[in-house]
């Protein structure tokens, strides 16, 4: 019991949450943070100039719990800028990421921070499930490798809402301002500093599939993958082409 108390109270976790027009879901997402058994956290919500009442909903939460903080962008800059802004504002030893329509299981932080502390891991992720817009399980769970190198992440990036890294040791990581696949770039950047991404096989989060999400139309992402490989990671044409083909095949046949 004393060991559990120590784990629960050691190490502030800063939760990065970009938000844009997610009024229908962000209450559920924030509730999943409030229900965490790990209590030493802060949520940094970056409202990317939403046109709905996302900011009004978040403001109600900031009044209920001072650990929840809201920063509203003066214009819509995109998720990359929103994530970078939240990372800069983060005060925690650990930085975690949670999309504004996804959900954490109640013991997500307790189990993952314990996993990191006990093994001295700097960069971790977990398996996760897929849910629909109504929160119904889609009978699909995305597993993880126990260990992933930079090369492994080039082929398969972790679930955004499952990732935590130790900012106290590896420092804060910022990313280029690209509209899509910016989370992918962040994990590639973090693993260069951390050396390895360690995965927990247990599912501790759910990713919501929305009809209007940026990531839903996979065909539109090909050019962003190419941009990541060639312009940001400076990979060769041959290597980039191979990775594009690999990603398309895996995506079409749902091999992961």
Automatic annotation (TrEMBL):
Residues 14-143 form the Glycosyltransferase 2-like domain. One of its GO terms (molecular function) is hexosyltransferase activity. Keywords: Transferase. Gene3D superfamilies: Spore Coat Polysaccharide Biosynthesis Protein SpsA, Chain A. Pfam families: Glycos_transf_2. InterPro entries: Glyco_trans_2-like (IPR001173), Nucleotide-diphossugar_trans (IPR029044). This is Glycosyltransferase involved in cell wall biosynthesis. It comes from Alkalibacterium olivapovliticus. The lineage of its organism: Bacteria, Bacillati, Bacillota, Bacilli, Lactobacillales.
